[in-house]
Amino acid sequence: MFKYKTGDEVLITAGKEKGKKSKIERVLPSENKLVITGINIYKRHKKATRNEKAGIFEVVRPVSVANVQVICPKCTKPSRVGFVTRDSIKNRVCKKCKGVLK
Ligand SMILES: [Zn+2]
What is the superkingdom listed in this entry's lineage (predicted)? Predict the structure, then answer.
């Protein structure tokens, strides 16, 4: 089970987008990375090829999970995510308020 889920609100804690808040668009568990809406967009200039026109393309780069914190919807604070097993069901919980995250 991965600590991060699509749709989680996160705070960027490092890198060029530090301090920004956005939502997880995609999770890449095998790389420990997250694609976050509007974060870490790089512009790529491309030359024209036979099939494509030249132009500037925006490329979204995944952000390492080490550089984000999930914002808990219950206590609205950036917090760490832990797991609690109750009735043999594993839940994600906020380590600050112990609230269960979806
Ligand atoms: Zn919380």
Answer: Bacteria
Residue 95 confidence (pLDDT) above 90: yes
Fold (topology level) of 9-72: SH3 type barrels. (2.30.30)
Cα-to-centroid distance, 62 and ligand 1 (Å): 25
Q: What is the number of helices (H) and of strands (E) in the chain?
A: 0, 11
C-alpha 92/C-alpha 31 separation (Å) is 20
Cα dihedral sign for 60, 95, 2, 72? negative
37 CA from centroid of ligand 1 (Å): 22
- Read off the pLDDT band of 16 (50, 70, 90): confident
Q: Which two tokens stand for residue 15?
A: 């890198």
CA of 70 to the centre of ligand 1 (A): 9
Q: Write out pLDDT tens, residues 46-74.
A: 999 998 899 999 988 999 999 999 999 99
